[in-house]
Each structure stands twice: as C-alpha cells, then as structure tokens.
Amino acid sequence: MEYLIGQRWVSHADAQLGLGVVVDVEPRRITLSFPAVGEERTYAIDNAPLTRLRFKEGDHISTVEGLELIVTGVSEHQGLLMYAGTDHHEQEQHVSELELDAFVQLTTPQQRLLNGHFDRNEDFALRVATVQHTDRLQRSPARGLMGSRTSLLPHQLYIANEVGQRHAPRVLLADEVGLGKTIEAGMIIHQQLMTGRASRALVLVPPSLLHQWLVEMLRRFNLHFSLFDADRIAAMAEGDPEAGTEDDTAGNPFEAEQLVLCSLELFADDPALQQRALDADWDLVVVDEAHHLHWSEQSPGEDYRFVEQLSTRSAGLLLLTATPEQIGQDSHFARLRLLDPSRFHDLQAFREEEKQYRQLSAMADMLEQGDIPGDLPADLDRTQDAETLIEQLLDRHGTGRVLFRNTRAAVEGFPARHLHRYPLEQPDAYAHAQLELEYALHPELPYQDDSWLDFDPRVAWLEKTLKALRPQKVLVICGNASTAVALEHHLHLRAGIRSAAFYEGLSILERDRAAAYFADEAGGAQTLVCSEIGSEGRNFQFAHHLILFDLPLNPDLLEQRIGRLDRIGQQHDVEIHVPYLEGSAQETLLDWYDRGMDLFRDACSAGYMIFQTFRERLLPELAQRSAAFEQLLTDTAEFTLRTRKELREGRDRLLERNSCKREIAVGLIEEIALLEAGDDLERYLETLCDAFGVDQEFHSEQTLVLRPSEHMLTGHFPGVKDEGTTVTFSREKGLAREDIDFVTWEHPMIIESMDMVLSTELGNAALGTIKLKGVPAGTLLLEAIYTVNCVAPKYLQVERFLPLSPIRLLVDARGKELAELVPHERLNTLVERVKKSTALAIIKQVHEEVDAKMRLANAQAESRLRTVLESAEVQMRADLGAELERLEALRRVNPAIREAELEHLRHRIEECAVHIRHASLQLQALRLIITT
C-alpha cells in the first residue's frame, strides 16, 4: 500500500483518534497527524494499524468548514481521493479528502468492517439475538404485562390488558376488598408507560398509604415514583439540590419528575399548590380510595373539585375504590361523573338507567341457554351466535366500559372465615358507657390515662389469647389511636409480648417500620396493634388470626378490617376473634353483624346500604336492647339475603361478565408463561454480562449473582449494584424472595441493556472463517442483518404492526442467497475467529468484492421491505379499523364512548399509515466470512 502526504487514514488500533492525515513518509516509517485529539503518531510502514478511509456513494461526509454532503461519486487524482456530493440545497460540490473533518465516527457496519474495526463473533451473535428478542417482544400480545412481580391472576391481567391498551383510559376500578386494585392500577400504569401511551403520571392516595404505594410500585413494577410531601415542596421552592435541580425548582416542582406520588391532603387549603399541579400536564392521574372524595349535588367538597379540575386537564384518569355504590348511589354517580361528565351529567337519568341492568342480565342468561329474548335491543343482529350477541349486549348496553368490578364470589382462591365470640363480664367502671353511643362502643375513651387497662376484661383476655396463639402472627384492630397505643404499650412492656403499633400519629416511615417488624418471620413482632387506618390498603395475608378489639359502626369498615387478611394469596382460613362485654352495645352490634348480615362469614358489597336501611331501628337498640331486636335481626337477615341475590342476579353479574373475560385472560397467562419458559432469558443475560464484563456467579437454580468487574466495557451496567445484585428468573422465587430481583424480558436491566446494544456499534461488524465441504477455500460469504427503521411518535405504537422485523441475508460469491440453507444459529457454531493482523490483510484485498455483495444484499432487502410494509399497513388497518367500527357501533347506543376516542383512533390510523410507508431499512450488523 502506497502512502502519500495528504491522504486520510484511520487507526483500527485506536478509533478514538479520529481521522488522521499523512504528514511525513520515510522509507520505513510514516507519521500521521490526528487533529481531533491534537496528536501525531509514527508507525512502522510494514505493520501500521491503519486503514485508508474511502467513503462510498450514499455516505454522509463533513468538511472542516462545516459543509455536509451526500457522496454521489468518488475519483482519484495524484493519489488523493476526490469526492463529489450534494449539499442540503441539492447543489453539487467537489471536495478533496484533505478537506474532510477530522472528527469522524465510523459507526455503520460497512464503514467499520472496511476500516478494520471488528468485534468478536460472540458480540455479533449478541446483537442479532437482541434484534430478534426485541422484535418478538414488540409482537407479543402480553407486552407491558409480563414485567410485574405478581401472581398471574386472570381478573387482574384481563383488566390491566383491557384498560392499559386504551388511549387515555378513564375508568373506575372497583373490585371488592382483597382482589388487588393496587396491582391492577400498577399494571395499567406500567403498560401505559412501556407502550408510550403515557409518560407522566400523578398518583393521589391517603397519607397512610403513601409509602406502601411507593414501595409497591418499585418492588412489583420497577416504577420509581417520587414522593412529594410538604417538606419536599418547601425544599424545592428554596432550591435545595437534594430535592431537585436548580432548573426544576425555578419553575413548577411537579414538572421536575415524570412519576409523582402524593396525598390529596397536601393540597388542602393551598390554591397555589393546586394550580401548580394542574399546570403540570399529566398523561394519567390515579386516585386511590376515591370514595373519600366529598360530593353532593349542591356543594361538592374542595377535594372533589380539585380532582375534577385535574380530570379535565389529564387525558387519563383511574379511580380506585372497593365501595362504588355502598356509600350511596349519588356518591357513585359523582365518581362516574369525574370519568366522563358528558356521559354522566344528570343524576336522575342515572338513577333511571340503573334500573335496567337486571333486565340486561336476564337477557344474557337467556342467550346463554340458547333462547333469543323477544325484547333484544334492535341494534343487535339476531342471526349472530349467542356468544357474540352477549358480548355486544354487554358492550353496547352494559356498564363495563367505564366500570370494572370483580367480586369475591366470581374469583376463586379465597379462604373461609370463622367467627369466634368471647363474652366477657362488663365491669362496674364502665356503667357510664351507655350515656353516649361512642362510649357505648368504645368504653375506654373517656379515660384520660391508661387506668382502664387494669380493669377492662378485654385486655386480660387479649394477653392470654396472644400467648396461647404463639408463635402465630396476630393482627389486632381497634377504632381509636389512643386505644391502640395503650394496648401496644401494655403488651410490650407489661405482658412481654413482641408487638408493634400502627396508627395515624406515626410518620409514614415509622408505619412502614412497624409493618416490616410485624412481617419479619424470624425476629419480628407476634402482633401488630392497629387503629382504624390499619383497615385500609395494607395487606397482612401472611397472618390469619384477626382480633377485633371493638367493632366499627360502619359495616364497610368491618369488611375492610377483615379484608386485611382475607385476600387473594391467603393460605389459611381466616380466624376472626371478637371479645365483647356482655349486655353492652358491643354485643348488640356483634349480633346484628353476625346474625343479621352474616358479615363475618360472607363478604357483602352492599353493607353500608343495608346499614342505612336499618339505621333508625338499630341505633336505639344499641342504646338499650329491647324485645324488638329479634325482629330487627330477622328483617335484616331477610333483606340482606334479598340484596345479595339482587346483586348476584343484577348489576354485579353484568359487571362480572365484562370485568373478566376468562378466555382472554387465560391466553395472556399462556403467552407470559411461554416467554418465561426455558432458559432463553437466562442465557441472553449471561451473554450480555460476558460482553460488558459483568461477573456472574451461580446462586441457585434459575438464580445468579451479578457483580461489576474491573474490566467492564462501560462504567455502569443497568441494575447491577457495586456490592452485587442477585437476580432470579423464576416468578415463584421472585414472589417468595423480595430481597432478590425478579428479572423478566421487561425488567429495566434487560430493556436498558438491549438499548445499550442497539444504540452503540457493539457487534455490528465481525469477521470470521469457516470450513465448508465442497466450497473452495477463499470463498467470501457476507451475512447481513437488516431491521425496519420507522421513525414515529411512541404513542402511535407503530411497532405493534411494524416491529423491527429482522431480515437476514447470506450472500455468496455469485450473489446467491443462502440464509435458509445455513441458519444463523448454525453458522455461529461453525465460524472461527481470525487473528487481527490476518483479518486486516484480508480486508485490504476484498473492498470491491464486499461492496459488490452489499449492493446485491441491499437490493434483496429493499425488495423484501416492500412486502413487510404492505403487510404491516394491511394489518394495522384491519386491527384498528375493526376497533373503530366497534366503537362507532357502540357510540350509537352507548354514550359511554367518548368522541375523543373515536377521533384519536381515526387520526392514529392515518398517522400510522404515513409512518409505515416512510419506513426504511437499517443495516444492523455485517459479518464477512471466508471459507478455509
């Protein structure tokens, strides 16, 4: 190779030097200047690690003057290359290689290969595997659902999939206590973020649940929410660097983070802070325990008005409550009104509409039995099969569009409940208790000190019972914080029982510590004593003994208390222990809940409504039990039985049909199980770690320990801590061991690592040799991997119809395509590495042959691309078109479908079509193989 002053060369020993120019040539030495780094290097001519830089037609080049051209032709004049090209004005320009910018980055596979920058064949295989796995995940119907550390429960997966795939979902999640609304909300948020439908979310929860939400979102979904409280807001306002960047704090604190978690109380009596939250442009707002929002037709509460303003500013809205109707039809209407005010605008009309649901349920039952109801709505086609008619009936005339409610009766996996009653003699010191209802139910409240502990028989009974139940965990709930604190002190200090208190006077962190102490199996507390706040949101299903030190007057609160233990995942029957003072209001209320409502053995979603019905008769009996009480019990039992039957036969039945379509849920579970089966993910992560220099150590079956090494390719590998990270690929182990990371194809470690591979040049150029019988030595094979590059806004989800769609070509010396004859995996086992010096010598000889094969490969890939794009557009129009037709038919009979959804879908179809048509090929990787 002849070196001439002025020529441009690149060093394949150190790509960071940039473009070098020959400044001196001696008989045995050559000197190059590298302007990009301000250095000169001298090499022996015989073994200089240099490759002549020669751009080709179609390449982009830049000059030192900042001129950018697309090369249209290359010629040579007196040993120097001359480039012809067009600038951004489409004007033809001519430049010498002397004028090229020294800050050149050789990143395309062809540039790197022809300039001697190869990677290992293992890295090439890793890149191809990354492309294939990404394509498969983009096509999966379970996308966005497989990454959660949760059990795969049909009702949760169905709701998450149905709601999570909607544009700007606005729904009420109203599953009964214990069915996992927080899990469903987390799944929906995760899917919305994964698929690009949302990027900014605000979650509003009661103060007592702040830290639980924070931990659940991180532990189960790897979602890093920022907890906003008064202290953080104040710190950000003062420019505290620990609270946010200076740029963030100079403006709206809510714009400093993408995922924000805070309590509604944070905004109480603070219009300025409310306005900042309203101005922050959320994609999704989530409100937990939404039944606490105060509303009446005449005067909605401040909290309701604030959420209403948020709901008009945010495209998506999720409301969570286990009591959608029990607190009253009016209040239920208020929640639905937040979701879609144009649909739910008239309270009286809503009341009339509610009366129709039982009739619809009866129609569905008849269709299931093979009969066509005579009063079937006119918009339904009677010639359709029963299953289709039921689906259309529910879809167009039911309530499942905005409201999802699964009942415990319809979902399997709940334990039995057993009530244990303990009558205790009422002490004389509590004679005053009958003077006021609150004191009648909580006789210890009037005492300013803890003296009541000495004579209240419930205290001695509690101490004795806890000792008898050792070492089993026991949850104790009472109505008031002062009672909980006094009891816990007595148990801990005087009875020698390991215990912890959980009440509203504690900080969020202190509550979490108490809950963690209770959950600790080895050295933790035997009992947790909670005030009423312990009956909302927290899950303690690792225990199965519940002691109710007193009873709440609201039956829904009683159901929530029991629901802390009676949940999906409970492995034992729930044992409910109720001590009570004989002849007191406590005994009367216990009898009414037990013999009237049967609430201890069977959950009832209409508890508060039943209480309201009998309130006027019940309250006097609590003050002084009379002979009429037995009749009250009989009437309550009959009314409860009728109500439960109505709920089963009426609206709840309709909702259950639309809240979990089991065949769809089972299909999703099977898809996730298929993706988790085998060791594909484990082998892929091990390959990633090998490529990036992360140490791996076997921990146990399907479990590894990953540690950073001194030879890492990058300074950081996603998810690997300095002290090491233990990961498991087993969902069962991931659920059992919270100290181990449960890694799925959607775990940030995998997603970010895949991005690292595809966003860099790692593995995009390789060279190897192979022995093939019957093929002459020196024959060249070129393996090229192309993907479809479609630049489109993420919210369109074009990859659902047009994923990476890898195209693999294997071109031989005659231009013949051999990809099907020699699969990529087979080739990987046969190819052998080549010494660097030998590889460079080969490259210098085969420039023209490689260029010729690349032209053949590009032509074949372009031909295949047209078919891929045509198929993608047909698929997109079929899928989205069918959904549009369905929603248009729905809207004619069901105003629950918002016009905004239809417009978005029409826009999305046309936008997707434009982006699909403009998609192009991207050469992802290139491997030159020489037969020996």
UniProtKB/TrEMBL annotation:
A Pfam family per the record: Helicase_C
Top EC class for this record: hydrolase
Keyword entries, A-Z: Activator, ATP-binding, DNA-binding, Helicase, Hydrolase, Nucleotide-binding, Transcription, Transcription regulation
SUPFAM superfamilies: P-loop containing nucleoside triphosphate hydrolases
PROSITE patterns in the record: HELICASE_ATP_BIND_1, HELICASE_CTER
EC number from the UniProt entry: 3.6.4.-
Domain Helicase C-terminal as annotated: residue spans: 461-630
One of the protein's GO biological processes: regulation of DNA-templated transcription
Chain ranges for the short sequence motif DEAH box as given in the UniProt record: 288-291
Keyword DNA-binding: yes
Binding-site positions, ATP: 175-182
Residue ranges annotated for the Helicase ATP-binding domain, each copy included: 162-342
Coiled-coil stretches: none
Gene3D superfamilies linked: 2.30.30.140, 2.30.30.930, 3.30.360.80, 6.10.140.1500, P-loop containing nucleotide triphosphate hydrolases, Tandem AAA-ATPase domain
Gene Ontology molecular-function annotations: ATP binding; DNA binding; helicase activity; hydrolase activity, acting on acid anhydrides
Assembly, per entry: Interacts with the RNAP. Has a higher affinity for the core RNAP than for the holoenzyme. Its ATPase activity is stimulated by binding to RNAP.
Function: Transcription regulator that activates transcription by stimulating RNA polymerase (RNAP) recycling in case of stress conditions such as supercoiled DNA or high salt concentrations. Probably acts by releasing the RNAP, when it is trapped or immobilized on tightly supercoiled DNA. Does not activate transcription on linear DNA. Probably not involved in DNA repair.
Similarity comment: family membership: Belongs to the SNF2/RAD54 helicase family. RapA subfamily.
Record protein name field: RNA polymerase-associated protein RapA
Organism per entry: Pseudohalioglobus sediminis
Biological classification of the source: Bacteria, Pseudomonadati, Pseudomonadota, Gammaproteobacteria, Cellvibrionales
Gene: rapA
